[in-house]
Write a structure and sequence with these properties.
Strand order of the largest sheet of chain B: 1-2-3
CATH superfamily of the largest domain in chain B: Cytochrome-c3 Hydrogenase, chain B
CATH architecture of the largest domain in chain B: Orthogonal Bundle
Radius of gyration of chain B: 21 Å
Oligomer: heterodimer
CATH class of the largest domain in chain A: Alpha Beta
Helix content of chain A: 25-40%
Largest interface: A-B, 64 and 74 residues
Largest sheet of chain B: 3 strands, antiparallel
Order of helices and strands of chain B: EEEHHHHHHEEHHEEEHEEHHHEEEHHH
Shape of chain A: globular
CATH topology of the largest domain in chain B: Cytochrome-c3 Hydrogenase, chain B
Number of strands of chain A: 5
Distance between the termini of chain A: 50 Å
Chain lengths: 262, 432
Amino acid sequence: MSSRKPTSKPKLAVWKFSSCDGCQLSLLDCEDELLTVADSVEIAYFLEATRAQVKGPYDISLVEGSISTPEEEKRILKVRKQSRLLITIGACATSGGIQALRNFKNVDDFIDIVYAHPQFIDTLSETRPVSDYVSVDFELHGCPINKYQLLELLNATLNRRKPNIPNHSQCVECKRAGTVCVMVSQGKACLGPVVQAGCGNLCPSHDRGCYGCFGPKETPNTISLADWFSDRQSMPKRDLKHLFRGFTAGSDAFRKESERHE
Amino acid sequence: MSDTQTRTLKVDALARVEGEGALHVRVKGNIVKDVKFRIFEPPRFFEAFLQGRRFHEVPDITARICGICPIAYMLGASQAMEDALNIRVEGELQNLRRLIYCGEWIESHVLHAAMLHAPDFLGLDDALQIAKENPQLVTDALQLKKLGNDIMDLVGGRAVHPINMKVGGFYKAPKKAELETLLPTLDWALKTCREIALAFAQFDYPDFEYDYTCVSLQHPDEYAINRGTIISNRGLDIPLAQFFDHFGEEHVAHSNALQGKFKNGEPYLVGPIARYNNNFKQLSKNARKLAADCGLGPVVNNPYKSILVRMVETYYACEESMRIIEHYQRPGKPAVEITPGAGEGYGCTEAPRGICFHRYRLDEEGRVTLATIVPPTAQNQKQIETDLRGVVEQNLALGDDELTWRCEQTIRNYDPCISCATHFLKLTIERE
């Protein structure tokens, strides 16, 4: 691998663990801003975009993906050690991601379903968010993250100010945008009341209920919402369980709520 | 170098690919002893945890297999459910599906061609280094890529993991006026795409050819993207339901993705070159002219020229987007109504990297009892290793660094999406 000449700019590293690549892609999807970002930082490690690698320590590490193998358990400790600020991006890194569905089952059964030679597969019985292993300086939620929130976060970090990332519910976003409530007006199940804002009230503005990409908001009242679905919409228990077992099933709030409907 | 000396080429973590892969080549004297394109992307077990989920949840879940080509997973799963439930999605709903797929092709192809692959031909580490020498090229490429994302945004709600696609169609059909806002940029894109393709045509291409078995979709009415039957340039022509009669995968120790191959063990090629070789005549006149101007004949066997084929397909996807938007009439209903039930169904579309195959079985309630997904990079793995062997044999005179880079470039010819390839493939053949 070739190495790039060090500069005095803050060093940015982007790391991948178990994930779909979509959140780090969000950085490359900032087409209008990418060259400016690349100008404000030194991209020191970003395997998806470049062969060049600059050795640590790094000023900012963006971490995508959950910890799901013994190798990843070790690697995340190394990343933490080399990083002044460690920011996790996306549902996998912040709550375990869709692959955390394995946590509710015996992973050996899963391996048997998928692979012919289970002995080749080295995986942990549970997949966990990064914060279960190391201290994390900021968590950016979303499946995928919102690229404008990522830019705001980078901007704030580089300028040593608090990022303006709201932690209210999706419902607030709908009210602000003037989107008519799909639960009230169309009787559709919507996780909006318990899910953190961030996508820009996408689903309700497309006539569907929120399915929880941004994970639980602070102190969500999931019990009340689940009771509403079962009492007023006659949602079967199994569907209720699945509703909370999506991309952030590994978060405490949604895991507990889904377990109420086992 | 003596005949007995052993050379080992290693890349522990491949750059400019989506996901985690590695390369290991062992050469003894002038003989290539071993070539391994290792996939160590952790398994995520999609096929296992889809079991028990309702059919309508599946496209949103499979989207998360890959952030680069979610449409391939959403649409393949939707098609398979529609097949299982005997639903037909036609007219403007099918056109909208083709339009959003064109968006994914544009976004993914330009990302790969300009940002990930082009630096190899210039001996540079990344596109940012290209930007230093030729800022206009990179700015143009980024704007072209953005157009792909804009199409996905407008039709699908967002570019990564769209929220507006469902079994039967869409949650909400876009208005014509919204889509028409893309037309001026599409007009610009045709010109720009041509310029970028012609610039890339000036690269020095390594002299390597292989007589590929090209496998792709084919459709009587159009250059196949979002639907069709499976064909090859060796006479194969089968409905989707016969996929597993002809193709299988094997689980090898060095890969967390199962390797696709024909039942007789032969490798095959999927992706832009396979599509181009199989369906060249169905490209538009202007796209064929662009190909000719780039020096491409109707058959391409040099894998490095996949970068040019990607630009020709990008050009075609821009033309198609324009055509669909100009003729679009907003459908009265955004989706076909569906009654859940039992059945088995198949879906297959042309992901930017090649055919992405899905099979599901549903019970009476419409819950998944079996899920099988065969992503394109898993199918290309064996062909990638075959190419690598040939490239190393042909270039033993190169120094280790240069030969290693050439091998990396050879892997990147395939735009491998390693996140996709790993998980979950249902095994149908044992290694003998």
